[in-house]
Every structure is written in structure tokens, then in C-alpha cells.
Input
Amino acid sequence: MNRRALALPLILLLGLTGTAAADTLLIERAQEKPAEVIPVRGQTAQQVEARFGAPQQKLEPRGGQKRQWPTIHRWVYPAYTVYFEKNRVIDVVANQAGPEEIGPKPPIR
Output
């Protein structure tokens, strides 16, 4: 096999790894923060608001009476979105910091 045939895949591989290293992964940023700076599963909405303040936005509830799914309430804070079911935190999801960060899309409004 000639050297050109071997060099092309190597050049392509090096080029792809260089761009991937520059991306910031949302999961890496989320893992850097201690757990105590975000709401935890099981806290009530009142506890979250007392400790972290009022959210920037309270999104329209999803699910509910017409469906067999529970109603989910979502509160948006600058760094994360809190999901509530029956007034209790069920999940906290980090928000994407910018277009260069790879992570989930913003919540559906």
C-alpha cells in the first residue's frame, strides 16, 4: 500500500479529534458544581423558592387531566430548570450555557 493511502485517513482522524476537544460538554460543566447548589429530588416548591429565590420563569404545566400522565410544572432558573410533580422536585436539568456547548435543547415553552 502506498504512503498517500495511509496518510489521508490519519490526517482526517487528526482533524476530527482537534475539533472535538474544543467543544464543551454540558455534562462536564454540570458535574463540576456541588450538589448543594441546586435543588434536590423530593424538595417542595416552597423549599426551592425559599432557598433559591423566585424562578426567572414558570412555564405552562404539561400533562394533566385529559391524559393519564401527571401534571409537570417547570421553573426556569439561570443555570437549570426544575421539574415538579405534585409540588415535589422530580428532576433538575442544567440549561445549555451557549450555542457552543453540547447538551440538551432548551425546554419547550
